[in-house]
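Lecture 7 notes: from sequence to structure.
We start with the chain below.
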Amino acid sequence: MIELSLTVEQRPVGGAGKRGLDIFLATIGLILLSPILLLCAITILAVSRDKILFRHRRLGLHGESFDCLKFQTMVRDGDRVLRDYLETHPEARAEWESTRKLRNDPRVTAFGKVLRKTSVDELPQLINVLKGEMSIIGPRPIVEQELTKYGVRRQAYLICRPGITGLWQISGRSNTTYRRRVACDACYAKHWSLALDAQILIRTLPVVFGSSGAY
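Predicted structure tokens for the same chain:
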């Protein structure tokens, strides 16, 4: 856990009102989307015969780490596959070191590509929201090493619950630079309001259905 001394001004962005809305929306979402969640789980088991959910340690509110949930979209032994790929593809290594993402990730299965393109792979994060580890709207969850990229804006990330969607996601997602991502997170933390959350939520739908910046 990262040490962070809180002041009155550094309470979680949105407070109790935002948290209550998160619980309501996550509960409704899990109920309405249960057929899709079940179909994805069955397909993953049938196609890859692997675990349904992928858990990855991410940094959350006030520096607390948690297991961020996603549907499994990668092959087994993905770390080795990625390491071998980056050793033989210097252009991919540069892309990975810059964004921590790859447009042509060798670890992703065919069905996994569909899930990622539509962002359906992130639906299990509704469970993270119910547990209080994430919010429906907020900065995308990062690994601890990425916090150094935030520099003086690290506090903006740490006073928010990471979100399933957010300002960065509707501003280009992976088509933007990491610097732009940090700026979006800082802007969200500074200017948060229920109206801003509503605007982001409404604008998320066409971004997801259009698969803009998703890979």
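Points to note: The radius of gyration is 17 Å. Strands lie at 53-59, 65-71, 135-137, 163-165.
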